[in-house]
Write a structure and sequence with these properties.
mainly alpha, two-stranded antiparallel sheet, about 5% strand
C-alpha cells in the first residue's frame, strides 16, 4: 500500500524484484533533501518514524580495526543521511497507512 501511495512523492521506496515479495521488517524510504526536517515533522505530528542505521557499518566502532575513515564508502555515507523508516507492522490499518502517507506528503511539501 505504501508503494502505491508514495509512487508520486519525491522519495525512493524499497525495490522489490518481480520474482519475489518483500517482508518489510522495515519500510525505509530515501529522502534526498532535508531528511532530518522531514523526520522531525513526522515525529512532531505523531508518526513514529526513525533512522535505524544512522552510521554506515565501516564507521561503526566494531569495525575501527579495519582503519576505514569517512570517505571510504561515499555512497553508503550519503545514503545513511537520506534513509528514514516509516512505521510498518501487521496491526497497521489501511487508514493509518493513508494517514502516514498524508503526513509525509505534507512534510515533503508535495
Amino acid at each position: 500500500m505504501f508503494n502505491k501511495l508514495l509512487e508520486n512523492f519525491s522519495v525512493f521506496t524499497p525495490a522489490t524484484a518481480k520474482y519475489s515479495n518483500h517482508v518489510y521488517h522495515q519500510y525505509a524510504v530515501r529522502i534526498e533533501k532535508n531528511r532530518d526536517a522531514v523526520l522531525q515533522y513526522m515525529q512532531d505530528n505523531g508518526v513514529g518514524c526513525a533512522v535505524h542505521y544512522p552510521k554506515p557499518i565501516h564507521l561503526q566502532q566494531a569495525y575501527e580495526f579495519m582503519g576505514l575513515k569517512a570517505g571510504a564508502f561515499p555512497v553508503s555515507e550519503r545514503l545513511s543521511k537520506e534513509i528514514m523508516s516509516l512505521p510498518v507492522y501487521p496491526e497497521l490499518s489501511e487508514e493509518q497507512v493513508k494517514g502516514i502517507a498524508s503526513t509525509l506528503e505534507k512534510a515533503l511539501g508535495q
